Amino acid sequence: MDTGFQLFPRAASQIAGQVDALVLFLIGISLFFTLLIFGAILWFIIRYRRRSPGERPKQIHGSTALELTWTIIPLLITVVMFAWGAAIFVKAHHPPDDAMEIFVIGKQWMWKIQHPEGRREINALHVPLGQPVKLTLTSQDVIHDFSIPAFRLKQDVVPGLYTSEWFVPTRIGEYHLFCDQYCGAKHAEMQGIVYVESPADYQHWLAGDPSAQPPSSAGKKLFAMYGCESCHGQYGPTLAGLYGTPVQVTDEHGVRRTVIADEAYLRESILYPSVKIVVGYPNRMPSFKSTLSEEQVLDLIEFIKSLSGAAVVGPYQGPSLGPATQPTDAEPKINNPPFANYRTNQ
Amino acid sequence: MASIPYIPEYTVETYLNERHTVASWLLTKDHKRIAVLFMISITVLFAIGGSAAVVMRLQLLTPHSTLVEAETYNKLFTLHGVVMVFFFLVPSIPATLGNFLVPLMIGARDLAFPRINLASWYLYIIGSTLALTSLILGGVDTGWTFYTPYSSTFSNTHVILAITGVFIVGFSSIFTGLNFIVTIHKMRCPGMTWFRLPLFIWSMYATSIIFVLATPVLAITLALVALERILGVGIFDPALGGDPILFQHLFWFYSHPAVYIMILPGMGVISELITCYSRKSPFGYVFIAMSSLAIAVLGFLVWAHHMFVAGISIYGGLVFSMLSFLVAIPSAIKVFNWTSTLYKGSIQLDTPMLYALGFIGLFTIGGLTGLFLATLGVDMHVHDTYFVIAHFHYIMVGGAVMAYMGGLHFWWPKITGKLYPEVWGRVAAAILFLGFNLTFFPQFILGYLGMPRRYYAYAPEFQVYNVMSSCGASILAIGYLLPFFYLMWSLKYGKAAGNNPFKAAGLEWTTASPPPKHNFLKTPIAGEPYAYHEMDFSDV
Amino acid sequence: MSDLVAEQFDDLAQQTEADTLGMWAFLATEVLFFGGMICGYCVYRLLYFTAWHRGSLVCDNFRWLGVGSGGWNTAVLLTSSLTVAIGVRAAQLGQNRTLSIMLSLTLILGIAFLAIKAAEYTHEYHEGVVPGYGVFHPDDEISADLRHDAAQMHMSEVVLRRQFQLFWVFYFFMTGVHALHMIVGIGLFTWLLIETRRGRFTPQKHAPVELMGLYWHFVDLVWIFLLPLLYLVR
Amino acid sequence: MMETSKEKIDPIGLYLLIYFILLLLLVATLSAARFDLGPWNVVVALAIGVIKALLVILFFMHVRHSSRLTWIFAGAAFLWLSLLLGLTLSEYFFRSSHYTTESTAPYTQNVDR
């Protein structure tokens, strides 16, 4: 981190150059108008200083032509500013389809970052050079803001909402990662470092950590640790090949229905098992709501999915993954439960 | 201009010496006394907010200073924000100069509802007492924006007390706005048509529209946050089904028009100062007046430019960015018209004029940097950094406070009947201008380098600019203390000011200073505004 | 200057116009005050329509003679608006007897409104839908409906319960603030009744009656919009 | 009310008529709620509400023969309300289909207060 006399932060992402160009244009415009105003004032107060106490200047009440000029010209300039800024903004909110997906959870005063290959890191983000990276962000408590000045990017991390941002690192090095939205006492300590490495170094780093294993194997360990196999071996419903298949369930007030065992169903059965009981089995499964963390639930779901060998890839999510827009009066779409078609191949 | 013969002011009974009992001040219905009461209470609050700022600047001298820990620093910037925004900037010009001058400038004996005006002061006192009690009991650490779910669920500081204080002071400004609107509509003296109104009155009218139409939404939003905090229900807390972005929508629906509440009165003061000290009628009077209204109305359409990165949709970003550029145009018109008013004038650089010219310069920079923030592409980078801090301080401190100081000096003879020392005034204005620029210009660079706001410690490479900023802050502090001293000094030793010491046009300068209880001995007849061509400057 | 006109006004007409304008400006703040709540309500209605639909059905089930309590309340308030309007007319004509009758009728109707509201609140308390620390346990019949809705909407029942609770937060907050305005209105009208008995109002000087009338009509106006928003979400 | 001169006083009959219409509209609102018109339910209910509101404002609040200024004040209040509702709801409405994390809230503690 060189601490020389900087005017501009280093540009290390694909839009950094464009944002800097736009800012130079804006600085140019501002400089022009500032000098125009300051110059005019200085010139007038010298040229028209009061020469005698009784001096009475000739009154000028205004000129509509002049007024129109300094209404229309600023209007045109602002239209250009708007268009240029909007172009960058829209581009920055449409990631390419081949972007590498990284899942970021903001938690009070630390960043938990999870790579697709399962590698997890705290307050650090390793990204390969030149590879488009899409971050999917959410928060566990208050609003944070994932901001990387060198990439000229920031996106609020809102609890209860998936927001996303994407970039293409263009320069190897270590860059600041700040939390930009006030989030409590240690808001100033919620910082991190973004390491941009060459693809080779990145793979090396990725492979370097033995503990990192794909979530499904982590899920397998959890499955054993919490004794799930003791029931789901014989008494409880078998989980092999369960994912994606219809299941006969009776919900609490005795209505028997078939439900597709997607992530939402798996997740609900882990956290609130009594809501849907598989036909033919007693309602004896304990709730794991208070014992399992979010990552563990995701790992378990991955493990169950690996039992049936399925991996569902989700479509592009759009700029901010906010609260679901309830289908107001339309017939509820059975085949589109929120969680199902969101990619979770951790 | 019907000019009233000059009456030595000591023989006539003025609003200051008609009665001296404490009750005559605390239960007064005279708009001039209420203005003075506001002036005192606002100065006290400004001092509290300012001292918080000084401690923050000292903390930021070094990257990891231990002057104050994290929690204390968070409480300091919240206090600085809440006190400066709700208790100083919003009421400063309307409640002091506005209360004093609106009836005088339109030739009325008093505001339409004097008792409501006094109630407004009492609400202000109750509100500020509550806010300061929350400070004494341990302070609030949510920032003046009270963003949920932090303020409603996660913060364990005195949020409800502070919210009640701000809720009550909101009604104080509603009452002021109500009073001004009805007074300007119904109590103008004969001959005072709408387009003969002084431009200060136009800006007061526009500010009152915002007071009346925006403040209630803040009141209800803070009430919802307090409700959520007390009952633990999830209005804005996503863990309980709420939506934090809804809070931001409702909060900024008030808070952006609130920044126009802060700047519009300043613009009104500047129009008066520029015309008086260049002895010229304003260039494009109608355009300046209408741009005040345009700012007030357009100000309500732009609030979500505070939320470009908060998770709103692209549609929202595009619409609000476009509207935010529209609201910049009327401000540009005003700046161009002020500068043109100087053309071919007879300019005298007295203290108020220095403040006015300082205002125009700094407001121009503040306004132009606002365009950076309204541009979507750039806001992605500079949102919630020191760039934003520099921008709004250029508008609020460089603009609103500079105008408040200019207005205070310009009408000080009319309010107190005493002249302030001219030389000291100019020295203070110069110090203020220099100190201000040294404090806030480096923060633009800090912001673009990416230093986030509300950080009590920062990365070492930002230290150079922070040190410059802290030095500037100390000069700025001196710049504010100086006027306090020589204005107090002038109360006793200042020369007696006649009716119109600065040869300004306006009905308030036709009556005695300080004016009698009912402002005018007989109801004036208003002629052309800014009639500097008819005025006789012989006896200067 | 007779005590009829305050010192800062030139004549009575100016004072009346100023008072009316002042009242309308104040009502504008009230519109925005309720507007903030309605904005929050509408956003959540857009986001959580199922919960809003269920909540509205529950709050409309407090019925008497086949008409929901919302309907009865609106009828009561409309009648009180009538009596206020006739009362104001009587004040203008100086018929003090009619004025005092109308004012007392308005008071009775106002208290009737609050009584219906109180009955409704207790009913809802017994149904367990009052949100707040540990008080939110909708009784089984409502919970069953919620589970059915959750299953139909294919979402977790716990989440729907939270959204359902949010409906009740808005219901109690909006009707609560409205009831508060009713209580203030009743207090003002009691003061008006006392002043009328003292014969203070003449055809020239009856501004307080008109202003309080405007305030009462506004509170009735708010309820006119609260009825479809809260009770009739279908 | 503008001046208190005689001709501005409305006959009692007018008030009774307006009151009767308002009751009719109330019955209409309640009965309209019984039919399931889908999204149109909201529109009908609010439309009747607006008509009732206009009746109360124009006749009971005497705005009918008040100064044009009172019209502007009343109109401004409701215009600003529509500004707040319109812009906020349109922003929510145009949000791309995103998925609330509530049903899948990545919380370790699913608070159920």
Outline of the structure:
Chain B is an all-alpha fold and 540 residues long.
| Main sheet summary of chain C | 2 strands, antiparallel
Radius of gyration of chain C: 22 Å
Helices and strands of chain C, in order, run as: HHEEHHHHH
Order of SSEs of chain A: HHEEEEEEEEEEHHHEEHEHE
Distance between the termini of chain A: 32 Å
What is the average of the pLDDT values of chain C? 90
CATH topology of the largest domain in chain A: Immunoglobulin-like
This entry's quaternary arrangement is: heterotetramer
Number of separate strands of chain C: 2
- CATH homologous group name of chain C: Cytochrome c oxidase, subunit III, four-helix bundle
Strand order of the largest sheet of chain A: 3-2-1-5-8-14
Report the CATH C-level class of chain C.
Mainly Alpha
Helix and strand content put the structural class of chain A at alpha+beta
Residue stretches of chain C low in confidence (pLDDT < 50, at least 5 long) are none
Count of alpha/pi helices of chain C: 7
Separation of termini of chain C?
A: 59 Å
What does this protein structure show overall?
The complex is a heterotetramer of chains A (346), B (540), C (234) and D (113). Chain A is an alpha+beta fold and 346 residues long. Chain A has 2 domains: 8-45 and 64-212, Immunoglobulin-like (Sandwich); 215-321, Cytochrome Bc1 Complex, Chain D, domain 2 (Orthogonal Bundle), CATH 1.10.760.10. In chain A, strands 3-2-1-5-8-14 form a 6-stranded mixed β-sheet, with no helix packed on it. A 5-stranded mixed β-sheet of chain A has the order 4-10-9-6-7. Chain A has helices spanning 14-47, 64-91, 199-208, 215-225, 228-233, 263-271, 294-308; strands at 100-107, 110-114, 120-122, 124-128, 133-139, 144-148, 153-157, 162-167, 173-179, 192-197, 246-251, 256-260, 276-278, 320-321. In chain B, helix 3 (70-105) crosses helix 8 and helix 4 runs antiparallel to helix 6 (159-186). With 234 residues, chain C is mostly helical. Chain C has a single domain (33-231), classed as Four Helix Bundle (Hemerythrin (Met), subunit A) (Up-down Bundle), CATH 1.20.120.80. Chain C has helices at 12-47, 49-59, 69-93, 96-126, 140-153, 157-197, 207-231, and strands at 63-64, 67-68. Chain C has a two-stranded antiparallel ribbon. The longest helix of chain C is centred in the last third of the chain and has 41 residues, at 157-197. The mean pLDDT of chain C is 90. Chain D is an all-alpha fold and 113 residues long. Chain D has 2 domains: 8-61; 67-92. Helix content of chain D is 60%, strand content 0%. Chain D has 3 helices and no strands. Chains A and B meet through helix 1, helix 2, strand 7 and strand 9 of A and helix 3, helix 8, helix 9, helix 10 and helix 11 of B.
